Amino acid sequence: MPYRAPADEFTFLLDHVVDFARVQATDLFAEASADLTQAILTEAGKICTDVLAPLQRAGDLHPARLENGVVRTSPGYAEGWQAIAEGGWVGMSADTAYGGMGLPMTLTSAVNEMMAGACLSLQLAPLMSQGQIEALEHHASDAIKELYLPKLIAGEWTGTMNLTEPQAGSDVGALTTKAEDNGDGTYAVTGQKIYISWGDHDLAENVCHLVLARLPGAPAGTKGISLFLVPKYIPDEEGRVGMANGLKVVSLEHKLGLHGSPTAVMQYDGATGWLVGPEQGGMAAMFTMMNNARLGVGGQGIGVAEAAYQHALDYATDRKQGRTEGETGAIIDHADVRRMLMTMRAETTAARGIALACAVAIDMGQATGAAEWKARAALLTPIAKAFGTDIGNEVAGMGIQVHGGMGFVEETGAAQFARDVRVTTIYEGTNGIQAMDLVARKMMDGGEAAHRLFDEVEASAEAAREVFPRLAEAVWQASESLRETTDWMIAQNHRVRFAGAVPYLRAFARVLGGHIHLASALHDRGGAREKLARFYIGRLLPEHASLLAQAQAGDTDLYSLTPQEFAA
Question: What are the E-state strand segments in 122-240?
């Protein structure tokens, strides 16, 4: 049951739903023509289908392992990484001055999603490098850029980000890793970091770590954090790797899933590092890396949802069980299996459209410098991350259910999707934190960015009334309900906002999903996309009403039980 990269689906959404033509019309991205876009999606799809997808099970059955201080990766991963590196896929959106393609983030997001659907464990490696490349482009000195960026972009070296410590998870400000000035332009970094994805491996000749640490005398909390680039091997001025740095892998985590991706506990013992950005500017630099990484993680959830859907569809088409209402005799003709498959596909489409709309906003913000586009990108990022990964988990779970008892048996591969995707709702900021970010920081403008988006959704619905009056009315009304709840939310204190944040984010995504499906239907009248839109808008969009009711329920009931009563 092979994975098939959905290149054609991306083409449709880019052309007809998220208006990628606006990005192509900018001076910055004028080279991303329709022909080039199609060529990229097609070629990337081939690599994902033919090279990366066959590695999916190998990584699960033969995990990365630590042997005598060296991390050995899963069978075939070295060849898979070579294909990614040689194809230029690591540096798609990187600066052309250092060997990147300079392509829109929208295309990078599409390719990354396909890679995640093919083999999520391996896809994490280029995603981490891409985040580091972006952080260095924005914050590093020219000397660091000239030395490190060409190597990272070419895939000769890889990048990581080191935030979390045993006592400092989401509370990054509690970190204790320290850095001391060596007096020669370098710093000695000492401390331990955990959950470091691709913290070490045998795919590339060097691993470059971005490490958050605190200089002597720096204030407590996030304001006192600085960022340092700490390579595994210290390179010379020509980029040749030299002596080993003062760091090591203590252990690899034994995880629920993503077995092919080595998640390391890293120890730094006076390791040589270079300051990236100004002193105490670490969080600003790291957030440059994390914001697009959050979009990337949303894409990981969507990619796994696509793969799980394909896997379930193939099984449902072949498996014969019981009397059915259709002609095939396969379980795809059972009503409940149909319900699950329709939901899986509809949810994946909605999440993919949201992620691509976010990427388009990022590109437009970069190309035009317009504050409105940057605000749109900021607003959509937590929604794209949280909804994309929630849907990845839900669709993977449905995939197991479609398989029935065979889904609980590891040999079918259905369970691996659920195990692999589970962490995506946790890392790069838990989905609860994404929701809190949406109702707090992203509403500091008084809801202006949200209202501009509602205006667009409703204008689109108005334009669709003549063709699809009932569908358009449902989307319009849902948008108005979301608008009213947004105004209510802005008027509340933070505790009340946070109490309703998760259902509010989900409702927001529900409405955007209706908007995306309605636009898809307009360009595929009578086709599968119109039928899918009718399913989504008729069956899934109505959930927004109950979600918005939860969002406005306040905080009293959440805080009504005492800690003792929880345990009673």
Answer: 157-162, 178-181, 187-197, 206-214, 225-231, 233-235
Q: What is the pLDDT of residue 362?
A: 96
Structure tokens at 463: 């334009």
Secondary structure class of 176 (helix, strand, coil): coil
Q: How many domains, the chain? A: 1
pLDDT(45) > 70: yes
Structure tokens belonging to residue 251: 């252990």
Give kind and range of the element (H or E) at residue 274. Answer: strand 263-276
Asked whether residue 244 is assigned to any structural domain, the reply reads: no
Domain containing residue 536: 432-568
Q: What is the pLDDT of residues 351-370, one digit of tens each?
A: 999 999 999 999 999 999 99
Question: Of how many residues is the chain composed?
Answer: 568
What percentage of the chain exceeds 90 in pLDDT?
90
Residue 521 domain-assigned (yes or no): yes
Question: How far is residue 292's CA from residue 289's CA, in Å, rounded to a whole number?
Answer: 6
For 120-157, the pLDDT digits (tens) are 999 999 999 999 999 999 999 999 999 999 999 999 99
Q: What is the mean pLDDT of residues 372-386?
A: 97
User: Catalytic residue positions?
Assistant: 428
C-alpha dihedral over 170, 171, 176, 181, to 10 degrees? 90
Cα dihedral 335, 341, 344, 347 sign: negative
Q: Is 560 left (phi over 0), alpha (psi -120 to 50) or beta?
A: alpha
Q: Is residue 51 part of a domain?
A: no
- DSSP character for 280? T
Q: For residue 430, with 0-12 CB atoms within 10 Å meaning exposed, 13-18 middle and 19 or more buried, which class applies?
A: middle
Phi, psi of 65 (to 5 degrees): -140, 155
Determine, yes or no, domain membership for 529. yes
